């Protein structure tokens, strides 16, 4: 994305952004493209917005760890300016925002799980968002399901890729959670979409 396009996208996003908003993007890397394809979605990554010292940040689980990323840098990683901002229907109170930030801060620095295992101490993007919102607000975003359920629901997925990814053996009963299940979660409202 060119600098002036990124400027425009950032301005458009910040004009409507609120703390706690969830930002979905599409990362142009082979693994992320397979995640999107395997879930029938354009999106392959998710994080949520906070403001610190007047600066917008996105808290995300990315390779290698959970981190706070400046909004502009986060947006610069999306393909073709593809981004969607979703929000809970009721505004978050100051207490809820404080809880959200405190819970997220506890996960900072935790390593990424390249096998997308929900029942692991490691994080991945959609699991991180799910856990933080559940622990802080009691709201579960997205659908936890087995890899078998996920791949059966998405026949367009490349089983061959996932077989290679898991070194010849797909752990069919492994629980996971996808950005696609959060992007379609009815508990969220779409505030802005460039897709």
UniProtKB/TrEMBL annotation:
Pfam families: Peptidase_C92. InterPro entries: Papain-like_cys_pep_sf, Peptidase_C92. It comes from the Bacteria. This is YebB family permuted papain-like enzyme.
